[in-house]
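FW: tagging you since you asked about this chain on Friday. Here's the raw sequence from the shared folder, copied in full. Didn't touch anything.
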Amino acid sequence: MNAVHETAHNGRGWRPVSPLQGGRRRVLRARLLAGIGIVVVMVAFQIAMASTFHVGFGDFGSFYTAARIAATGRLADFHNEALQASVEAPYIPAGWHAIYCVRLQAWAAALLPFGLLPFKASFVAWLAVQGLILIAGWIWAARRFGIDAAVLASMFLPALLGIVFGQDPAFWFGFVLLSWILHERGKPFGAGMSLGLCIVKPQLIFLVPVALLIQRRWRMLAGFISGCVVVVGGSMLLGGWNTLPRYAAFLSRVATAGALGVRHEREMGIPAILISAGLPLVLRFALMATAGLALFVASRRSGWETGLTAAMLASFLIAPHTECYDATALMVAAWLMVFLGKTRLVRTLAAFFFTPIPWLLQLLDQPWTGVPALLLLCLLIAIAREQLRATNPAPHPELALNPTLT
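HL: got it, structure written out here
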């Protein structure tokens, strides 16, 4: 009785495939289908949760206001609370306070196409564009690291919920992802410029230049500075030469009025760790110094995957204001640590970042509100420890027993 063999094409013809190879392919195929199934289920679950939000109660009104001001050519007076409140008033529920757009004019100009649509249609476009960015990122990760990367991303609650709540996290995720892709393709200037454009939201990347300096990545640093110049220079062209002083004054007034909705205990910075643990805030300086030292150690003799991750983690921890949905920008860094990290501790902490557990715990009362921030700090320290072990390797057993061999 003749055995039946599977066949496969090797580029020059068909060849037999052994039962072992065929079984391995069936396992991989089953794993791929299971991964796709998990992604679909997780996304459906998050969409169901997100459906409880009402467009009028989210943050989209502030971005639509920026787009409308840009569309009507009033960006010179953009950082004016009265103007923003008057434009936003028809689109939010009666009695609901205005949510100000605290970005530079360049970002308002970039959002102009959304201002050409009616409010609800614009919100649908907002969801669609950011959804496509996320999906494109998942596809890239699945091709680069395997289906496990997409499965991890599908579990990440802050991304989809932040988008549906009206925020813009997928755009910053897209800039960071584009930067990494350009870096892998040997285009450091473009990679740096893509990161520099994130200066619109500086708390995400303000320590990236430190890592670039430590690693002496001069072309990427030049690109980063160029990206910043595009954003700041474009805003000054749109708003006038006094744009930056007026912007600073606007931020100060909005913050003093409490209109930013800052809740330090539920944010991604070091104060969240201390508040949730019931510790005095004066300790934040010691933890900030720890984060800075960890950034230096992690970046000193490492690849850019480690330098970028450490810089972004330190930025989140030290910045005065970072919300949980901002962590969407960290997804690229977390992927890099899960699949390129050298120690099990780093890979485990990075994988835990994607799970719903830390983000659901943050919704509880103290002491759980600081769990995501604590996770970021632990991951940063673990990366620094990983680099210390890599730069100070243990001696070979033979050398340890026979020092004369050195």
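FW: The chain is about 65% helix and 0% strand.
HL: agreed, and The two ends are 64 Å apart (CA to CA).
FW: great, closing this out.
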